[in-house]
Amino acid sequence: MNDSNLKKYIFFQEIAYLVGIFLIELSISFMTKADFGLSMIIAPAYILHLKISEFLPFFTMGMASYTLQFLLIISIIIITRRFKLSYFFAFVTSVVCGVLLDGINLCLAGVSFDTLALRIIMFFVGVVICAFGVALMFRTYIAPEAYDLFVKEISTHFGINTSKFKTAYDLSSLTVAIILSFSLFGLFTFNGVNIGTLVCALLNGPLIGAFGKIFDRHFEFKPMLKFAKR
Questions:
Q1: How confident is the model at residue 114 (pLDDT cuts 50, 70, 90)?
Q2: Domain presence at residue 131
């Protein structure tokens, strides 16, 4: 049957946004507990959280994440020499995600993945639901986290292919994470960076694309709030 003949269901973008950010932050919590390494994007924040929390116990992983994203937004403003309202909303999204991550980590504080098999299963569960959440977020009008905004704004400003710049940004984040881990915890100490980081890099893009095709085939994403329809 031709896709154009399929009945599509309405999926409100605001709900997609809420479900998306919840799944993304839940996936980070799962992958952190599985301890096979995190996505190269979140790894620098995790490493800073580990070190700073030794001296400031209240400094959570969520705080580390939105602090780094605030610096990314400042970098966008400095590089492009302009400010958009979307930058502010991207930071709001970053804070919401950080607070949500801390809440999920608190709820799962007593949960541990004791066996290797369970760690592997929960790691891949994390990878899959992260891709599912990102694919949902891509179909909303609401500003993304600063990580994604940085790639979009800087690549557009300099006329660089977005996919190529995203690859360069991911590799830069990986390099920063390794340097931070070595400098803060000792040479050849890979905190937050491991085989799982490579797995995330290989699977994340294809999974996001696959979920996106499924969503576009079965759903039509529309805003629920009246002001967003203008």
A1: confident
A2: yes
